[in-house]
Model the fold of this input.
Amino acid sequence: AEGKREIRIFMDGAFDMMHYGHMNAFRLGKSLGTHLVVGVNSDESITTCKGPPLMNDQERLTMVQGCKFVDEIVPGCPYVMSQEYLEYVIEKYKIDYVVHGDDACIVNGKDVYATAKKAGKYQSIPRTEGVSTTDIVGRMLLMTKDHHCESQDSLNQDEDDDTSLLCHQSKFLTTSRMLRLFSAGMKSPSEGMRVIYIDGAWDMFHCGHVSILKEAKQRGDYLIVGIHSDTVVNRVRGFNLPLMNVHERVLSVLGCRFVDDVLIDAPYVVSPEMIASLKIAEVVHGTNSDQIGNGNRGEDRYKYAKEADIYRDLPSPTNFGLGSIISRIQANQQMFQAKIAKKKKAENEYYSDKYGTKSSP
Done:
C-alpha cells in the first residue's frame, strides 16, 4: 500500500528435504515484515561443512521458490554465514531484519549474528516443534521395515533402541490455528474462473510435486488439490506409507504458492457429484507419479472425468519422485543413521532443556 514502508526480512539455510516446519519458519519470518528474502546455501558449501546434501541446488531452490511465504531468493549462500557476508546481504538486498531460529548459531566460537544484533537488525523465531529433517529421514530409513508405529513391537521397544530413534510416528501437533494460518488469504473461486483439480498423496512434499502443481495451475485460474487419507494411501501403496500423516501433507500443500484450495480426505474416485459441486473444468494428473508399492489399483478413478472429456494427462516436468528420495537415503543408510543418532541426541537435549522431557512432545 502507498505510504506503508516495506520491511524486508532475510533468512537463510540449506533447506535440504524442505518440509512444512521450514514453511512455518518462513511464515513466522515474513510476519515480522512485509517482504521475505531467503538465502539458500550452495551444494558446495553444505558439502564442505557437513557432507553432501540429499537434494541438489536446483531441487532445493525449486522448493524454496515454491513456498508462498517467500518473496525473493538468494542462491549460493555460504553454509557458514560470516559477518562480512551478512553485511553484504543487508546492504545489497536492503534488509531491515535478519531472522533466525531461537537456537544459537556459533561458528569458531563467535556468534554469526553478533553484528546484526549490535545494529538492532536481528530477530529470532521459535522452532516448529515436533518436526525435523532428522525425524523425517528416520521415517524413511524404516521403509525397509514393513511396520506402522501402532504395532505392539514398536510400542514395546526400548527408547534407546536404534530403531526407536527413527520411530515412524509423527510428533507434530496439528492445531486448527496452524491450518488457519497456512490457509490465510485463500478465497473461493470467482464466477467464470476455470477450476482445475489434481489429486494425490503428496507424501514427502518434494520438487516433483511443486513442478506439477505449477503446470496444473497454468491450465486455469484456480487450482484445487485433493489430498487422500492415510488409509487410502496405505491401501494403494502398502509398506509403511504414507511417511507423513494427512495433517502434515495438508500443511505442505497449503504452503505451496500455486495452490488455491485443498480438498482434505479427497475421494479416491473423482465422482460426477464432486465435479459438479466443485465446478471443476478440468481434472489433471501428472505422467510421473509416486507409484510405490503394490496396492489395489484396479479401478479407473478418473473414469467419470474421462467420460465427460475433462480429463488430461499432464506431462511431468521432472521424473523426480518419492522413490528418488527413498533410494538416495537408502544408498547412504549408514551415513544417515550416524547423522540421525547425533542430531536426535541434540534434539532430545533441546526438548529436555525446554520441557524437562527426554524427547519432543
User: Anything to note?
Assistant: Residues 144-168 have pLDDT under 50 and may be disordered. The chain has 16 helices and twelve strands.
